[in-house]
Amino acid sequence: MAVSSNAQDTRPAPLSTRELVELARSVRREVEELRGWKFKRDVPTEVYDERQLRAFIEKKIFEEQFGGGRLERTEAFLRMVGLIPEDCDLRDTIVAVLLNQVGGFYGGRTKSFYMLKREGVGYGPLLTRTLVAHELTHALDDQYVDLGKLINTELSEDAAIAIGAVVEGSATVLMTRYMMRAMLSGDFDTEQIMQAQAQEMERSQAFFRAPPYFSTLLANYICGMYFINRGAPPVPVAGAIADDPAGANVGENLLAAAADPPESSEQILHPEKYWNKQTRDRPVLVNEDDVARLVAPLGLHVVHRNTVGELLCALLTSDEHRELDIIGASLPGYWTNDAAEGWGGDRFLLLSEGADAGQAAKDLRGLRGVWITIWDTPEDRDEFVADYALEREIPKRASVLIGKRT
Predict the structure, then answer these.
(1) Which sign, positive or negative, has the C-alpha torsion 243, 247, 252, 253?
(2) Are 54 and 163 part of one and the same domain?
(3) Which of these, 26, 24, 18, lies nearest to 112 by C-alpha position?
(4) Reading across the β-sheet that carries 104-107, which strands appear in turn?
(5) Which of 253-257, 293-297, 322-326 has the highest mean pLDDT?
(6) Structural domain tally of the chain?
(7) 76 with 151, same domain?
(8) How far apart (Å, rounded) are the C-alpha atoms in residues 85 and 230?
(9) Most exposed: 140, 157, 164, 295, by fewest CB within 10 Å?
(10) Helix (H) or strand (E) holding 367
């Protein structure tokens, strides 16, 4: 094999801090045009390196969201229900996925935009501008809707997917329109576009290697994009980008969803179950206090409560080794299946032994779980139970019929 000494590295050079700040100012004007809103105040722009990003993840994720033992209890719940394998370390996997996936982010508390600068890595002009457009949309939305009030660390898995879909869906619609307009502008040649796609695939390797549970991060973007557009594709036809700069009333839809948030991933997967108020399908609530009273005499305490929801039920009734189909995953139908579509509500209770609830939550000893699921019809219930048993081998699992919906 011969190697030419004249070979050139065609990868884009990283932008300087000054260049990134100037680029953000330029993209900001385009974001305003596409959304049809004006920024009410400036959005400070900063550049982070990987060390600073890791520190941000440690504080934001593991101190604020998963602090006080919540990480360990959540990991136990995910493992027990079958969403992550026994050998998966939740903390390490979250760090690996986010460090590889994050190119920039909006800080809700600081109201600032942060661009990640990796040593020796440049994203290229198209991908960089697209990333900036996405995050600046979060900043713009936050000036009209208090995103911090929507994103609550106490949300269940299912509710977090629903709220995440609203937040990310809004930004993804605009980002998609931004990229389509850029591609049609003639400012970027085919090689640059293909290079951007190749870079995204390379940057996503840790994401593809992670257990399928982590693919729900992508579901927020895809399903949220269709939900916030009331079930319609984000770019119906190429010409609509110029004719409809406000983005098919996405801003108005965001305001409506923020004022009356969706309650489940079912409503995200099937937008008509949310947007049609006459037929809105709300999740059935489970009276979990009765379970707590029943297990108390056994020395068991409820140390964690969660809701799985339709989207994760679909994951549990699919091959646990299924590789992500990046083409299929671009449509909401990929994220559900027949076994999950009859979901009506559920609640999972993680039980631990202990002298009192505080000690039980700290020790996490003799863990058990009670998962109460509610289905639209007996046929829906039976289909889920059968497929769940087929796809997930859960030791010492017992299924019990506890009643019928009236």
Answers:
(1) positive
(2) yes
(3) 24
(4) 45-48, 112-116, 104-107
(5) 253-257
(6) 2
(7) yes
(8) 35
(9) 295
(10) strand 365-375
Paired tokens of 116: 């990640």
Q: What is the DSSP string of 221-289?
A: HHHHHHHHTTTS-S-SSTTHHHH-TTTTTHHHHHHHHHHS---SHHHHHSTHHHH-GGG--PPPPP-TH
Q: Which amino acid is at 154?
A: E
pLDDT value of residue 246 = 45
Query: Is residue 358 situated within a structural domain?
Result: yes
Q: How many CB atoms lie within 10 A of CB 301?
A: 21
Asked whether the beta carbons of 348 and 306 are under 8 A apart, the reply is yes
Q: What is the pLDDT of residues 229-256, one digit of tens each?
A: 999 888 654 445 545 544 558 999 999 9
> What are 372's strand-pairing partners?
347
Same domain? For 222 and 338 the reply is no
Q: pLDDT tens for residues 12-36?
A: 556 677 888 888 889 999 999 999 9
d(CA 207, CA 204): 5
Who wins on pLDDT, 205 or 333? 333
Q: Which of 312, 289, 311, 313 lies closest to 302, judged by CA? A: 289
Domain boundary (221, 246, 277) is at 277
User: What range defines the domain where residue 222 resides?
Assistant: 17-277
pLDDT digits (tens, 9 = 90+) for 82-105: 999 999 999 999 998 888 888 889
Instruction: Give the pair of three-digit tokens for residue 368.
Output: 């058990």
Q: Are residues 295 and 270 in the same domain?
A: no
